[in-house]
Design brief:
Blueprint (H helix, E strand, L loop, with lengths): L56 H22 L4 H19 L2 E3 L21 E7 L5 E7 L2 E10 L10 H12 L4 E3 L11 E5 L3 E8 L2 E8 H4 L2 H4 L13 H7 L18
Antiparallel strand pairs: 1-2, 2-3, 3-4, 4-8, 5-6, 6-7, 7-8
Helix pairs in contact: 1-2
Length: about 270
Amino acid sequence: MKFSRFTAVIALAIGAGVLGAAEEPALAKDPPPPSGAGAIKESMQISPKGLKWGLSLEAVAKLYDKVIEDEMLPLFRKAQPGLELDALSDEQKNRKGALRRSRIDFGSTPTGVDQSALKGEYSYNNGESMAVMTATSGTKRNFFFFSDKLWKIYDEHKLKKGGNLGENFQEAVKALTQRFGVAPKMLPADYDKGRPFDEAEWRDPDKIIRAVDRGSTLGVVYTDRKVQEDLPRYRKNKFNDGPDPIDKDVASVTKKGDDKPEKKSTDKPKKK
């Protein structure tokens, strides 16, 4: 599997849970070549090299261990022996462990992720889990797993004027269209279909790529087509068997630029 080209890496932990056992579905067939709006002929690439569907969390973490080592090498070369070098070594060790510590399992107990815009990207009681890392730029990368096998990556980019992806969803879609070489399929928000935000969608031979309009944040999601196009076999326990899916109130909050809900008063003015 190949991926796309843009990402940065530094780890951040967000908690952990307990994962129940889950049956793996039979191997799915390779999906047909993509066609129609948003079809990309060749598979796009994403860093780091070696990242592919089916990796365990530990295997993904080992890829990023090397990235962290390369990133910190200039600092080690300049560090003085003693306290400075020891502190740098401790920092590197902590960063390497953060992705591993960030694992969250979607078993039978609700998690804090349900209060975020990621709700709807996973289900409960189906052997799913996630882990997360955050770049110095503020971009978050969320990894999703079925039975500890990677099947989805969800990047959260902060949009800003002059940034690589622009300052709004329209500019971001334009930038991604230039990168992918083809215009996307546009999908309006539809709560009944589990799509709380407007999206732009592309498909290449092995991935579905979604740009998600979250106001000042752009979600760029990569999913394994084999899994996504056969998702019911992986999610034998329906989403409604766990906590309720994302609702309109959560979506409206996450689309606001400051991520804070508007306070609307329904009280009528008191007559003096």
